[in-house]
UniProtKB/TrEMBL annotation:
Transmembrane segments: none annotated. It comes from Pseudogymnoascus verrucosus. PANTHER family: SERINE/THREONINE-PROTEIN KINASE DOA-RELATED (PTHR45646), SERINE_THREONINE-PROTEIN KINASE DOA (PTHR45646:SF11). It comes from the Eukaryota. InterPro entries: CLK_kinases, Kinase-like_dom_sf, Prot_kinase_dom. GO terms for molecular function: ATP binding; protein serine/threonine kinase activity. This is Protein kinase domain-containing protein. One of its GO terms (biological process) is regulation of RNA splicing. Residues 1-187 form the Protein kinase domain. GO terms for cellular component: nucleus. SUPFAM superfamilies: Protein kinase-like (PK-like).
Length: 187
């Protein structure tokens, strides 16, 4: 709740848009000290594999933490890596904002965007955290690049066609919809 309050204050006071919300940029504090003790014991009992690169570098394989005690749980989430944040009510589009998998429709279609893009991003992130899979999973082309048209087709399949006001905000949407927001019939 604290993080949500902070984000709300940032949106209202300075109009901050984060744009890089993804699981890699959310850290959870640990309230169950037993998790750390269990982690250390597991490392002592069965050390993780490692590879010595040279005299000063060793690469260790990651070891997963166990789950916290149900009575304690995880602590509050904290956002980290605010390097892609923008200040202002609206921003011009940029192809490098937001992780592909969480990209908001207005960003995909080169429209000006604002904090609503973050709300879209947070919704996708929350889905992933609870469902352990992406809401719009297969959004990449055969070469591994983001395919905004395929991505938007998955969005339309889930929530329906966009309103005509949305379609009229971008020339790019004309490749997918008529001016009323309707998809052309397949040929």
């Amino acid at each position: 709740m604290l993080v949500l309050r902070i984000r709300f204050v940032l949106y209202i006071d300075v109009m901050l848009t984060e744009l890089n919300l993804k699981t890699d940029n959310v850290m959870l504090s640990i309230e169950d000290d037993g998790m750390l003790a269990d982690f250390v014991k597991a490392e002592v009992d069965s050390p993780t594999p490692r590879k010595q690169i040279d005299e000063s570098r060793i690469i260790y394989k990651s070891r997963k933490f166990g789950r916290p005690d149900k009575a304690k749980g995880y602590g509050l989430p904290s956002l980290c890596d605010l390097g892609e944040s923008r200040i202002g009510a609206t921003q011009e589009s940029n192809p490098f904002v937001q992780p592909h998998i969480y990209r908001a429709p207005e960003v995909m279609f080169d429209m000006p965007w604002g904090s609503a893009a973050d709300i879209w991003n947070v919704a996708g992130l929350i889905w992933d955290l609870f469902e352990v899979e992406h809401l719009f999973g297969d959004v990449f082309d055969a070469r591994g690049g983001h395919d905004p048209f395929k991505h938007f087709a998955l969005i339309v399949a889930l929530i329906g066609e966009p309103p005509s006001e949305f379609v009229k905000r971008s020339e790019t949407t004309g490749q997918c919809f008529d001016t009323n927001g309707k998809s052309p019939a397949p040929t």
